[in-house]
Amino acid sequence: MSWLDRLDPALRGFAEARTDxxxxxxxxxxxxxxxxxxxxxxxxxxPGVEIAGASVTLGRRTxxxxxxxxxxxxxxxxxYCHSGAFMLGNLDTDQIQCVELARRARCTVVxxxxxxxxxxxxxxxxxxxxxxxxxxxALAAELDIDAGRVAVAGTSAGGALAALLAQRAAAGSAPxxxxxxxxxxxxxxxxxGSKDEFTDTPGFDGPATVAMWRNxxxxxxxxxxxxxxxxxxxxxLAPALITCSDLDPLRDEALDYARRLMTAGVATELHVFPGxxxxxxxxxxxxxxxxxxxxxxxxxxxxxxxx
Length: 307
Description:
alpha/beta; single chain
């Protein structure tokens, strides 16, 4: 049975959608995505969530952040890293995901506008995520945040950044985090069965994963510190919720990472959404399955941050 036969009817209209990360198309792809997500962010209904912009300055570099307040005072917090294959996106990209997390988990979500490849290869994006986490904890009182209840979350490439933050926290080289939410995460640069199988799936496909890592790593060999799955010891990491799609080249690395976390003694919840493709929750956020995902993420975070 082909992946198209397995794709849920609610997503069939996106069957021809592809992510073209080639150099000659990157500018157009960025502009199109940014415009669509900007338009969606402007009309998004956000009852119960206050949204404010801010910035973090480190030397001559300024990182834009967006703060979503949906919790009591002082609020637990989530550092959120947006999707986009390390090459696309900005603060508008996952606005709906940030609003849903803030509202459902009764917390403050802080998203950052990290630098993008290929102009800024690794470790630029991760360095920006680290700056945002350190800033949030250092200014917790000013931000009305409980520094003892901080989680990390990310989607797709943002999932890689969130996973790396959790690894650094466990190693003591980043502020402590109590939970990690990884949705359709990028975790491994190496070949997998799902990357080989899903060579033309909507949203994201196997060839796009190759282009993503090539650009993110600047054509270099992957340093272990850049790739969550290359970590040899996962013991002591924060508990995790990992969610992935059945028809996604990133599926197998999510399954393997969840298995390794459990083997290392890390409390891990894993959900695979059948009939879905990469980015389904952004393509059809009002769809029943997308709402199930948001509810699942919100409940897991609420237990971790308020339990």
